[in-house]
C-alpha cells in the first residue's frame, strides 16, 4: 500500500504524544518529586551549560502533569482519549489475523496457485471509532455464519482487551459488526437527581446512565427487574418512583404499591403511593380492584381511542411490586395465589392500551417465579448468580448478545442489562437514591389521594333477599287458606304440595256456575 510522505512524521508525532501523555500522568501523580528533580538537574546544569531549558522543561512537564491530575476529564478528552483511540485501532489492525486464528475463525482452503491448502483469514473490512465504541466489520468467509462470531465473541474480546464485545448482525443476518467497548463510564456510583417539580415524565422516566455515558430513560411499560440480594433492586425501584414523582404529585400517574416484606421498603415514602398493600390478602384485593378499574376504562375507551393518554382524573396507573415471588410463588393459600396470578396476568396482557403498567422486582428468577415473563414488555437483569438465570430473565441468546449479568461484580450495585421491546441489550446503571431524598420526596411528591385497602366484611349466612312488605291479608283469603286439601292430588300442580319450604299455591275458588257440579245440577 502506498502511503503519503506525511504519514510517517504524523505517526511518529502520535507515538511521541502517547509517551508524553504517559509521562504527564506520571508527573501529575508526583508533582513535588518532579519539581525537585527538575531543580536538581537544573542546578547540576548551572555553570556548565545553560540551565534555563531545564527549568522550562520542568515547568512544561509540571503544567501538563497538574492539568492531568487536577482536571482529569478535560485532559482525557483532549489528550488521552485521542491517543488511546489511535493506539487501540493500530493494535486491532495489527493483531487481527492472529486473534481470528486463535478464535477459530480462519479456514483452510485449496489454492490453485499454491498447489495446496492455504489458511484464509477473514478480512477486516472496516475499523472505526463511533460514539466511543470501536467497530470492526469482518468479511465473513464462505461457510461461516454470524453465530460463529457470536460463539467466538468472548475469545475476541479477551484478545483485544475490550471490556465488552457485542456481535451485532445486519438486517439479513448475513454480516455483522464487532462492537468493542473499552473503559467503563459506569464504574463509579452516582446519585440520582432530585427531579424538578416541572419535569413531568409519563411515557419515559430518567433512571440513570448508559455505558456510553448517555442518560438512560426507561419507557413506562410493564417491566420485570431481577437481581440477587444486594444487587440494587431497591435503588432502581426508587430511581423510577422518584422520576415519576412530579407526575404523581399532579395526578397524572398513580402508584399502587405491593410490598409483602411488611412494607419495609415502600413505607420509606408511603405518600407517593395512592394505595399500598403489605399483606397477601391486601395485594390480591388491590390487584382485583385494579382489574375492575382497568376494565371500566377499557369500556370508556371503546370506539373513542385505542391508546389512553394520561390526564388528571384518568391517570396512568403503575403497580409496583417489590418481590414478585412473594405474590406468585410463596403464598400458601392456593385460592388466593390463583386469584392474584389471574389478576396480574390480566393487567399485564390488557393494561398497555388503557395505561395500566406493572413494575415487578424479583430476586429468584426461576421459571415458576417468572412464569409470566413473556407478558412483560421490558426485561431488566441486575447482578445474577449464574448464566442460566440471565437466560431465564432476559431470554435465550441474551448472553451471546452481551448481557453478562452473572459477571457484574458485587461492588457495582444498580448496574444491569436492560432488554427493550426491540430485543436490544443495553448496559445501564441506576442513580443511587438516599434515605434523605426519599423523605424529601415523600413530602414533595405526595399523591393527591390515598385510598386505603378495606378488606370485605364477613359474609352473612343465608342473606335474606329484599322482600316487599307483605300486604295485610284479607279475611276472605284467610278463610280460603284454611280450606283443607283432601290430598296432594287436589293441587293443579302435584309438586306444589310437596316442595319443601314452599307454600302450596293458592287454589282458585271454583266458579259456581251451577252447571259443572253434577251434584248441584242433579
Ligand atoms: N445505584 C447504586 N449505586 C450505588 N450503590 C447502590 C446503588 N444501589 C444500591 N446500592 C447499595 O447497594 C446495597 C444494596 O442495595 P439494595 O438494598 O437496593 O439491594 P436489593 O437488591 O434491593 O437487596 P435485597 O433484595 O436484599 O433487598 C445498599 O447498601 C445500597 O447502598
Automatic annotation (TrEMBL):
Pfam families linked: FtsK_SpoIIIE
Cited InterPro entries: FtsK/SpoIIIE/SftA (IPR050206), FtsK_dom (IPR002543), P-loop_NTPase (IPR027417)
Ranges where the record places region Disordered: 449-522
Bias (Basic residues) ranges: 465-474, 502-511
SUPFAM superfamilies registered for this protein in UniProt: P-loop containing nucleoside triphosphate hydrolases
Domain FtsK per the UniProt entry, residue ranges: 202-391
PANTHER family: DNA TRANSLOCASE FTSK, SPORULATION PROTEIN RELATED
Protein's recorded name: S-DNA-T family DNA segregation ATPase FtsK/SpoIIIE
Species whose genome carries this gene: Naumannella halotolerans
Taxonomic classification: Bacteria, Bacillati, Actinomycetota, Actinomycetes, Propionibacteriales
Amino acid at each position: 500500500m502506498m502511503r503519503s510522505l506525511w504519514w510517517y512524521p504524523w505517526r511518529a508525532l502520535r507515538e511521541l504524544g502517547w509517551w508524553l501523555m504517559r509521562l504527564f500522568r506520571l508527573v501529575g501523580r508526583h508533582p513535588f518529586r518532579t519539581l525537585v528533580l527538575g531543580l536538581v538537574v537544573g542546578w547540576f546544569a548551572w555553570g556548565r551549560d545553560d540551565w534555563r531549558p531545564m527549568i522550562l522543561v520542568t515547568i512544561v512537564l509540571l503544567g501538563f502533569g497538574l492539568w492531568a491530575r487536577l482536571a482529569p476529564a478535560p485532559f482525557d478528552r483532549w489528550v488521552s482519549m485521542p491517543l488511546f483511540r489511535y493506539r487501540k485501532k493500530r493494535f486491532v489492525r495489527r493483531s487481527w489475523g492472529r486473534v481470528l486464528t486463535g478464535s477459530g475463525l480462519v479456514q483452510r482452503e485449496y489454492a490453485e496457485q499454491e498447489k495446496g491448502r492455504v489458511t484464509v483469514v477473514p478480512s477486516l473490512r472496516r475499523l472505526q471509532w463511533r460514539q466511543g465504541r470501536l467497530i470492526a466489520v469482518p468479511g465473513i468467509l464462505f461457510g461461516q455464519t454470524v453465530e460463529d462470531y457470536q460463539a467466538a465473541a468472548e475469545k475476541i474480546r479477551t484478545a483485544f482487551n475490550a471490556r465488552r464485545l457485542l456481535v451485532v448482525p445486519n438486517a439479513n443476518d448475513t454480516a455483522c459488526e464487532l462492537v468493542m467497548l473499552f473503559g467503563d463510564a459506569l464504574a463509579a456510583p452516582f446519585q440520582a437527581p432530585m427531579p424538578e417539580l416541572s419535569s413531568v415524565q409519563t411515557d419515559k422516566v430518567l433512571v440513570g446512565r448508559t455505558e456510553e455515558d448517555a442518560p438512560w430513560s426507561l419507557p413506562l411499560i410493564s417491566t420485570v427487574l431481577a437481581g440477587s440480594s444486594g444487587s440494587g433492586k431497591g435503588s432502581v425501584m426508587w430511581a423510577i418512583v422518584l422520576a415519576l414523582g412530579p407526575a404523581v404529585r399532579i395526578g397524572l400517574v398513580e402508584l399502587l404499591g405491593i410490598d409483602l416484606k411488611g412494607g419495609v421498603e415502600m413505607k420509606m415514602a408511603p405518600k407517593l403511593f395512592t394505595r399500598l398493600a403489605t399483606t397477601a390478602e391486601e395485594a390480591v384485593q388491590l390487584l382485583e380492584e385494579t382489574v375492575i378499574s382497568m376494565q371500566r376504562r377499557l369500556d370508556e375507551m371503546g370506539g373513542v381511542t385505542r391508546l389512553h393518554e394520561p390526564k388528571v382524573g384518568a391517570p396512568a396507573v403503575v403497580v409496583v411490586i417489590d418481590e414478585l415471588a412473594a405474590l406468585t410463588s410463596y403464598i400458601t393459600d392456593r385460592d388466593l395465589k390463583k386469584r392474584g396470578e389471574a389478576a396480574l396476568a390480566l393487567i399485564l396482557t390488557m393494561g398497555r392500551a388503557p395505561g395500566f403498567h406493572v413494575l415487578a422486582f424479583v430476586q429468584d428468577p426461576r421459571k415458576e417465579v417468572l412464569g409470566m415473563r413473556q407478558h412483560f414488555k421490558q426485561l431488566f437483569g441486575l447482578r445474577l448468580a449464574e448464566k442460566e438465570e440471565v437466560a431465564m430473565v432476559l431470554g435465550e441468546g441474551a448472553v451471546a448478545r452481551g448481557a453478562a449479568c452473572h459477571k457484574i461484580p458485587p461492588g457495582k450495585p444498580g448496574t444491569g442489562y436492560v432488554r427493550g421491546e426491540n430485543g436490544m441489550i443495553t448496559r445501564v446503571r441506576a442513580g443511587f437514591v438516599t434515605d434523605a431524598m426519599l423523605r424529601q420526596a415523600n413530602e414533595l411528591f405526595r399523591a393527591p389521594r390515598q385510598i386505603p385497602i378495606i378488606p370485605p366484611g364477613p359474609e352473612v349466612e343465608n342473606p335474606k333477599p329484599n322482600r316487599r312488605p307483605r300486604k295485610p291479608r284479607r279475611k276472605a283469603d284467610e278463610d280460603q287458606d284454611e280450606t283443607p286439601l283432601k290430598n296432594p292430588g287436589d293441587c293443579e300442580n302435584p309438586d306444589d304440595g310437596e316442595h319443601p319450604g314452599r307454600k302450596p299455591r293458592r287454589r282458585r275458588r271454583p266458579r259456581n256456575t251451577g252447571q259443572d257440579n253434577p251434584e248441584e245440577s242433579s
